[in-house]
Design a protein that fits this description.
By secondary structure, this protein is α/β, with parallel strands linked by helices. It is built from twelve helices and twelve strands. Bound molecules: nicotinamide-adenine-dinucleotide. Belongs to the isocitrate and isopropylmalate dehydrogenases family. LeuB type 1 subfamily.
Length: 358
């Protein structure tokens, strides 16, 4: 059956890295005779400039119909002063919420050849391969009530951190099952020492562990995990955390690899439809220069092929090509040690060339 793919390049380098990933997608679609229907639409600030909304109705409708959405990045100083409803970032949160993308998978891995790019010592970082499973549609980012009260003295602002048992169970299930497919270790992260919602989270995850005897479960407080990720990252296999803690920890894990330009992410619903995006933003400082590293976006395409598009073998080929690209010594500006680096459009050509010659 034809699978539907929606391409949303977004703003800044989102446009450039998505173009590279689409070149790879078009190549594998043709070479391996894949039945894909591919549509591309504007989102974020680019869409706001054209039609006054960062997420036009057509985008939401097409995203709901798609099996996989490839999302570049949104945002930039041009739109920073807008009201929340008009801001590019609103498009991202709306898509996550409306598509019910509750499970965010963020791998953080390091190719041995790039261990010099990490801010950590090679002896600490070598072999890094972590998967962070972040709850994406609940918790304090969406909790109600929320607000700013400015008609009393002193003024105050508040948010609500809330999880029900179903939300915790479904994200923990994804994490346990991911650990089963990897090294069999799961660390559940919260702040059970101070937060009721965290104590509740811990009790549910602990109860579920009886159904996964092959997974070694541990619990850590979020502040300790932030420290442990820097001191001894290789202790981790899979980490599961709420929206807030997962957001912070996955950025730390991404930084450990030395380049945010290498790391993909997947956000899935319960039937494995999903949105796939690089971990980085729209990088206004380098936008339009054709120097952004598109590998995170190409690796996100690979995750889409694996999880949502029934094309695991093609995903393996893309992952192998990225590995070979790095092993062959090709570099982009963010991981180069000298002036010898490829620009954005050259990277997809190299990746395609490697797949073609395998
Ligand atoms: P950023 O990830 O865009 O950039 C951080 C730094 O990393 C910059 O120096 C940038 O040049 C570099 N960088 C990022 N991706 C790179 C790549 N592929 N190749 C080479 N270098 C790369 O984060 P930021 O500067 O905090 O945010 C910029 C804008 O992006 C803001 O408007 C923010 O809201 C938005 N943003 C969007 C998303 C998203 O769409 N998912 C995520 C984060 C930030």
């Amino acid at each position: 059956m034809t699978k539907k793919i929606l391409i949303l390049p977004g703003d800044g380098i989102g446009q450039e890295v998505t173009k590279s990933a689409v070149e790879v997608l078009n190549f594998v679609t043709e070479k391996f005779n894949l039945a894909f229907s591919i549509t591309s639409l504007e989102v974020g600030g680019t869409a706001y400039d054209k039609c006054g909304s960062p997420i036009p109705d057509e985008v939401l409708k097409s995203a709901k119909e798609a099996d996989a959405v490839l999302f570049g990045a949104v945002g930039g100083p041009k739109w920073d002063q807008l009201e929340w409803d008009d801001r590019p970032e609103n498009a991202l949160l709306t898509l996550r919420k409306e598509l019910n993308l509750f499970a965010n998978l963020r791998p953080a891995f390091l190719f041995d050849e790039l261990s010099g790019a990490s801010p950590l010592k090679e002896s600490v970082i070598k072999g890094l391969d972590i998967l962070i499973v972040r709850e994406l549609t609940g918790g304090i980012y969406f909790g109600e009530p929320r607000g700013v009260i400015d008609d009393v003295k002193p003024n105050y602002a508040f948010n609500t951190m809330i999880y029900n048992e179903d939300e915790i169970t479904r994200i923990a299930k994804v994490a346990f099952e991911s650990a089963q497919k990897r090294k069999g270790k799961l660390c559940s992260v919260e702040k059970a020492n101070v937060l009721e919602v965290s104590k509740f989270w811990r009790s549910i995850v602990t109860e579920m562990s009886a159904d996964y005897p092959d997974v070694e479960l541990s619990h850590q407080l979020a502040d300790n995990t932030a420290m442990q990720l820097v001191l001894n990252p290789n202790q981790f296999d899979v980490i599961v955390a709420s929206n807030l803690f997962g957001d912070i920890l996955s950025d730390i894990a991404a930084t450990l690899t030395g380049s945010i330009g290498m790391l993909p992410s997947a956000s899935l619903d319960s039937s494995f439809k999903g949105m796939y995006e690089p971990c980085h933003g729209s990088a206004p400082d380098i936008a339009g220069k054709n120097i952004a590293n598109p590998i995170a976006m190409i690796a996100s395409l690979s995750m889409a092929l694996r999880y949502s598009l029934n094309a695991e073998a093609i995903s393996d080929k893309i992952d192998a090509a990225i590995k070979k690209f790095v092993q062959n010594g090709y570099r982009t500006i963010d991981i180069a040690t000298d002036d010898n680096f490829l620009n954005t459009s050259e990277v997809s050509k190299k990746i395609i060339n490697i797949i073609e010659n395998e």
